Amino acid sequence: MARLVMKFGGTSVANVERIRNVARHVKREVDAGAEVAVVVSAMSGKTNELVAWCREAAPVYDPAEYDAVVASGELVTAGLLAIVLKDMGLNARSWQGWQIPLATDAAHGAARIESVDGARIIAGFAKGEIAVVAGFQGVHAETGQVTTLGRGGSDTSAVALAAALHADRCDIYTDVDGVYTTDPRVVPRAQRLDRVSFEEMLEMASLGAKVLQVRSVEVAMVHNVRTYVRSSFDDPADPRLGTLICDEEDIVEKQVVTGIAFSRDEAQLTLRKVADKPGVAAAIFGPLAEANINVDMIIQVVSDDAATTDITFTVPGAEFDRAKALLESRRDKIGYTALQGTPDVVKISAIGIGMRSHSGVAARAFKALAEKGINIRAITTSEIKFSMLIDEAYTELAVRTLHTLYGLDVKA
Amino acid sequence: MARLVMKFGGTSVANVERIRNVARHVKREVDAGAEVAVVVSAMSGKTNELVAWCREAAPVYDPAEYDAVVASGELVTAGLLAIVLKDMGLNARSWQGWQIPLATDAAHGAARIESVDGARIIAGFAKGEIAVVAGFQGVHAETGQVTTLGRGGSDTSAVALAAALHADRCDIYTDVDGVYTTDPRVVPRAQRLDRVSFEEMLEMASLGAKVLQVRSVEVAMVHNVRTYVRSSFDDPADPRLGTLICDEEDIVEKQVVTGIAFSRDEAQLTLRKVADKPGVAAAIFGPLAEANINVDMIIQVVSDDAATTDITFTVPGAEFDRAKALLESRRDKIGYTALQGTPDVVKISAIGIGMRSHSGVAARAFKALAEKGINIRAITTSEIKFSMLIDEAYTELAVRTLHTLYGLDVKA
Fold first, then answer.
1. A260-405 under CATH 3.30.2130.10, yes or no
2. Taking residues A268-286, what's their average pLDDT?
3. What is the pLDDT of residue B392?
């Protein structure tokens, strides 16, 4: 007998009518003989409403109480879905994070799952019961307080639950029908991928693809959970399977480049004529790390006078002003002649496990972009991807150029 | 050191600004040196929204899942109040029903409290922590599922918690400033009572006064919890104490009649010429009881032919149509010549512990109403109250007449 975890996000459970549609998807799998646990998010908009109340209550709100408030949204959806399933004549029960229990650490607002006890839910399966699980939340064992996993945490709930239940599959139902070679809104000829490896998906999610939360892919990879990304908008009676995220071993034909990701949420900062001596990097990046500003690409170029160096790096767009102010306040300690920067940059990445065994993959991209007159501001590479920082105005041109270059366009 | 339970209902926590006002009331008591547990309801309108979703999900919804959904409203208020209190520099923590735990039976939707464990909250007091408790909810120990206490259940949560914590006082903050001799909207000269006994309050709540849930008064009486009804709209810096509900022993001057209650939610049914023989009452009231229709006043009058009898009784207004249909369907089994009825009746009651030692109290009422031309359709009495069924059109006239008759009008 197959055992499945099915996860439905906020837009898929936006109102009771949509929840009824979710129930039809669940019924299809149950009718086919599967044991099913369903993980649900809050109805879309509800979490934002709860967060807004917390902000109104206090500018700096207590994170544990914030969790107690915002985790309530998923309880509503789980209860409503259980009601609908029972009304359809199925056997179902809702599960709150503490009831399972799904134990986390105490990092309220962004807690990490420590353990998931599958025993009670499996006992329910033996009685023919569908488990309807409130996503996004857990409980901290010592304090007994409710915790949340952070935005998009329901994906992680689902994958971790699938691992605990030894499920055959974890289906993440979303508003797209799978993982694409790139964003179809930018490249209409983008293709849905049948399979993508955990490593590639992890890079794609980290580099800007929004289809899955990074942490959920990590958990899927560690526990080798076969995870499908598929559409909740498909006909419940005849859905497609979407994209399988799986072990590299299960992918027969490895593409050199599997996908092109891009992130507009980048900003570039450059410090001119920094003394080229030991300790200067620490003087710059130490304070940024302490301020919880995440630095990504770093490049260092020796200045024309050879005794100093120009240092360029990127930070998340939302941190641009804060990073700039911090560096300005430390100008004397660091020592530089000018601080320049712009939030109008984009990071474009090509990802593919085939890169491991092919050389010159990135070089082809540099040449193709140069031919289109696109200036590359910075480059970083790793084993299965490379990223380039370019002017934001060239985003679409660069993405389309690379998509065609690596043979990803759908055949006409 | 005083130990208090403070309870705030839906209109007192309707939005974040009102929750901030509640926090000021709490701060006043904490600043005065009290250990405080606060019980809160859902923000007004939220429970109705959640109930409406359950109804939309299924016409006959699963009661356990209904509880999981509707209990979420109180979690939001409790978390928000804890955030506001912490923002004021106070030490606070929210408590969900299962965290206390507040254990109930399994009667989902109208569960009864079985036990309240005060130990964790008292341990919090020792650390200077204010407990903010989500009202209306508990947990069933065997299933681990969330239960709710039924509408108005937060009053009962508060009183039961006060008993478990051995609190000196339970303050029920509401949108009125106490218990009145009758509804001031009907009788502008109604007076606020300084003290009312548990027994009287129980009758008043049962007979139509909406200020407190009946069950909460029962719990207060059993555990002898000194309970104040007071206004959340008072200035938090200078509030009044409202009405104390207390043991009869603590009331020095016992009124013959303390208050006049009335309930418009009544309907009258009369069966004409029922055979006057054993078993006929069972044939009528047995099926009504099985259908969960609550029968209140019953009067039986021998018909003019002496071999038959007319039977009149009341049911809740909402059950009128159902009761009528049920009796019509059983006409052959019961045997009657006509079924008559009207929902346009009202039950008016006078309540007072002084009735025990005074005779002729009700007779004065019958005479006074007759003088105003008000026909009494039925009468019931008990040790400390009597009730009369009259035409609904005479409600205000009858209430004002009795209020003046028993000397309850405020002195001009």
1. yes
2. 88
3. 95
Q: What is the mean pLDDT of residues A206-225?
A: 90
User: Mean pLDDT for chain A?
Assistant: 93
B4 beta partners: B36, B169
Res B277: pLDDT? 80
pTM of the model: 0.87
Q: How confident is the model at residue A339 (pLDDT cuts 50, 70, 90)?
A: very high
Give me the mean pLDDT over the A136-152 stretch.
93
- Per 3-state DSSP, chain B is made up of helix, strand and coil in percentages (nearest 5) of 40, 25, 35
Contacts of A129 in chain B (CB under 8 A): none
- Residue B57: strand, helix, or coil: helix
Query: β-strands A195-197, A3-8: how paired?
Result: unpaired
For CATH 3.40.1160.10, list the domain ranges present in chain B: 3-248
Pair A316, A265: CB distance under 8 Å:
yes
Identify which of A309, A313, A323, A320 has the alpha carbon closest to the alpha carbon of residue A380.
A313
Interface touch A146/B96, C-beta < 8 Å: yes
B331: left (phi over 0), alpha (psi -120 to 50) or beta: alpha
B86:A54 CB<8 A: no
Is residue A82 within 8 angstroms of chain B, CB to CB? yes
- In angstroms, the separation between the Cα of residue B286 and the nearest Cα of chain A is 31
pLDDT of residue B412: 67
Report whether B114 contacts B103 (CB < 8 A): yes
Does residue A109 have a pLDDT over 90?
yes
Candidates 3.30.450.20, 3.30.930.10, 3.40.1160.10, 3.40.50.300; CATH matching A3-248:
3.40.1160.10
pLDDT at position A89 over 90: yes
- Please tell me which residue, A161 or A279, carries the higher pLDDT value: A161
Please give the backbone phi and psi of residue A339, each rounded to the nearest 5 degrees, phi first: -115, 120
Query: What per-residue confidence (pLDDT) applies to A114?
Result: 96
Of A57, A68, A78, the CB nearest to B87: A57
- Contact call for residues B309 and B276 (beta carbons, < 8 A): yes
Q: What is the 3-state secondary structure (H, E, C) of chain A?
A: CCEEEEEECHHHHCCHHHHHHHHHHHHHHHHCCCEEEEEECCCCCHHHHHHHHHHHHCCCCCHHHHHHHHCHHHHHHHHHHHHHHHHCCCCEEEECHHHCCEEECCCCCCCCEEEECCHHHHHHHHCCCEEEEECCEEEECCCCCEEECCCCHHHHHHHHHHHHCCCCEEEEEECCCCCECCCCCCCCCCCECCEEEHHHHHHHHHCCCCCCCHHHHHHHHHHCCCEEEEECCCCCCCCCCCEEEECHHHCCCCCCCCEEEEEEEEEEEEEEEEECCCCHHHHHHHHHHHCCCCCCCEEEEECCCCCEEEEEEEEEHHHHHHHHHHHHHCHHHHCCCEEEEEEEEEEEEEECHHHHHCCCHHHHHHHHHHHCCCCEEEEEEECCEEEEEEEHHHHHHHHHHHHHHCCCCCCC
Cβ-Cβ contacts under 8 Å for A355 (sequence gap 6 or more): A256, A257, A361, A383, A384, A385, A386
| Rounded percentage of chain A residues whose pLDDT exceeds 70 | 100
Residue numbers in chain B where pLDDT is lower than 70: 412
- How many CA atoms lie less than 13 Å away from B51 in the CB half-sphere? 10
A21 touches chain B (CB under 8 A): no
* Chain B interface includes A137 (CB < 8 A): no
Nearest-angstrom CA–CA distance, A168 and A234: 22
What residue spans in chain B does CATH classification 3.30.2130.10 cover?
A: 260-405
Residues of A in contact with B48 (CB under 8 A): none
